TrEMBL record:
NCBIfam families: crtI_fam. Pathway: Carotenoid biosynthesis. This is Phytoene desaturase. The keyword Transferase does not apply. Belongs to the carotenoid/retinoid oxidoreductase family. CrtN subfamily. Keywords: Carotenoid biosynthesis, Oxidoreductase. It comes from the Bacteria. It holds the Pfam family Amino_oxidase. The keyword Oxidoreductase applies. Gene3D superfamilies: FAD/NAD(P)-binding domain. Residues 11-491 form the Amine oxidase domain.
Length: 499
């Protein structure tokens, strides 16, 4: 039985562990922190519980498929709850609109926003239809396949399909072909930012994010996103896996360009396979110290990186009916302020995503209270323009709270805060070893997508594999689950195990 060591007990590490155990490997996971989950973690304060980062459950079938593969009933592990109101969207003119999963209800909302403009109404649904075609093609040809060999791409793509994708246009420019209404455009563009790149420069392929949200809906896992981490832990242990907490890996061992173990707390541990669920660039920079192996890897300084996120966690002793599970506030100058963020500066005016799981899940906080996360896109730590000192944190916290309290129905929110905490890019960097404090790993530029994105294995380096947000197909929980599936299948094929 081949032994596999996995570095990191985040979504990627836990999910690939479960698959490899099902394939018949012996698996041990080594986690730096004293809790598992990586960035998909939680904060507990008395009876308040906050998901640390991930909050939006898209592509629920990816969450379920792992348990089906392991021949387990997912309902014994976690409970996904479909939601009808996808987003409450607050605009700077004090208007609020609810975007519903039910198409006739959505159509009514669109008509209200456009004041009955037939062209914009039609354009909105044409945008969804055309981008849904792109998604179906990407799901079939891109998202579930490895591109270790460029020939795999040639068998998946044809020139007409590439042209039809309009991938070289930005998300914004592509959407403008269908929609002129600023409020609708801003709502759609805000969602494309979930991959950590500006919608004004990113490929139009990321317009499939708001499209899939509308077609397949969003879900909430009872107890919050960390409940899925707990489900994975339960699955891994049941299958015979071992999870070592408070066990930071300091080095990957190699012999003749073959990974053969790791160094943990000064001691060598040997295995047949090493899987890195740790941040890709951190791994290359800090864990691979063999000079011969490093020479085979593209320098990480030549790569482009995503932005980061500033998050406030607020425990409130009052209910706020205007808050849905998922909420967005969009200021009047979204484009200008996002440009500042992606140029390395803090925005002048804040747009934000507000996660309020207590609006439908009473396990997240005491009765008649709310537990909310307020998330704002900010530069990563590779920018020299922002220094996250205590003064910076205080300033940006105050600015964020001022914006939050300006929203309709939230005017008195500052008076009802009974708990407050924060997460900055420095936390991403120091606690979770994310290179440059980037919340989303490598940027999703065209030249860092598909065959140009790091794959589950580096050519000429044996027994070393990768999964995670910076690995194809990309970031987000669902995509990391796909990454782990691709990687586990590759390992199984190489070592000839069978389910």
């Amino acid at each position: 039985m081949k032994k596999v060591f996995i570095i990191g007990a985040g979504i990627g590490g836990l999910s690939i562990a479960a698959r490899l155990l099902q394939y018949g490997f012996k698996v041990e996971i080594f986690e730096k922190n004293n809790t598992i989950g990586g960035k998909t973690n939680f904060i507990q304060y008395k009876n308040f519980k906050f998901d640390l980062t991930a909050s939006i459950m898209m592509f629920p079938q990816n969450y379920i498929d792992l348990f089906l593969f392991c021949r387990e009933d997912y309902r014994n592990y976690f409970t996904p709850i479909p939601i009808n109101n996808l987003y409450n969207v607050f605009y700077s003119d004090n208007s609020i609109y609810t975007f519903n999963a039910h198409l006739p209800t959505l159509n009514k909302t669109i008509s209200e926003i456009t004041e009955g403009n037939i062209k914009d109404n039609y354009g909105y649904f044409e945008f969804l239809s055309n981008n849904y075609k792109k998604y179906l093609w990407a799901e079939d040809s891109i998202l579930n396949k490895s591109f270790l060999k460029t020939s795999n791409l040639l068998t998946s793509l044809t020139l007409p399909k590439v042209i039809n994708l309009n991938a070289f246009a930005s998300s914004y420019d592509d959407a403008k072909k269908y929609i002129k209404n600023k409020k609708l455009l801003d709502y759609l563009m805000f969602q494309t930012m979930y991959v950590g790149i500006s919608p004004y420069t990113s490929s139009s392929i990321y317009n499939i994010i708001p499209t899939v949200t509308q077609y397949y809906g969003l879900y909430h896992i009872k107890g919050g996103m960390y409940s899925y981490i707990a489900a994975l832990e339960k699955l891994v242990i049941k299958k015979g896996g071992i999870i070592h907490k408070s066990s930071p890996v300091h080095k990957i061992l190699f012999k003749n360009n073959k990974a053969n173990g790791i160094v943990v707390n000064g001691q060598n541990h040997y295995s047949d396979v090493v899987v890195c669920s740790s941040d890709y660039s951190y791994t290359i920079k800090s864990l691979i110290k063999d000079s011969n192996v490093k020479d085979l890897i593209k320098p990480i300084n030549n790569l482009e990186y995503s932005c980061s996120t500033f998050i406030l966690y607020l425990g409130l002793d009052k209910k706020y009916p205007n808050l849905n599970l998922h909420n967005i506030y969009i200021n009047n100058e979204l484009k200008e302020n996002l440009k500042l963020t992606f140029d390395g500066f803090l925005p002048n005016d804040i747009s934000m995503y507000i996660y309020c799981p207590s609006s439908l899940d009473d396990t997240m906080c005491p009765k008649n209270c709310e537990a909310i996360n307020v998330m704002v896109r900010v530069p990563n730590t590779l920018s020299n323009n922002v220094n996250w000192t205590s003064e910076t944190i205080y300033y940006f916290t105050k600015k964020t709270l001022k914006t939050l309290s300006s929203l309709r129905g939230l005017k008195d929110i500052l008076e009802h805060i009974v708990y407050i905490n924060h997460l900055t890019p420095l936390d991403f960097k120091n606690k979770f070893n994310t290179y440059g404090g980037c919340a989303f790993g490598l940027s999703h530029t065209l030249k860092q997508s598909v065959i140009f994105r790091p794959q589950c294995q580096i050519p000429k380096i044996k027994n070393l594999f990768f999964t995670g947000a910076s690995i194809h197909p990309g970031n987000g929980v669902a995509m990391v689950l796909k990454s782990s599936k691709i990687c586990a299948s590759k390992i199984n094929k190489m070592y000839m195990h069978n389910t």
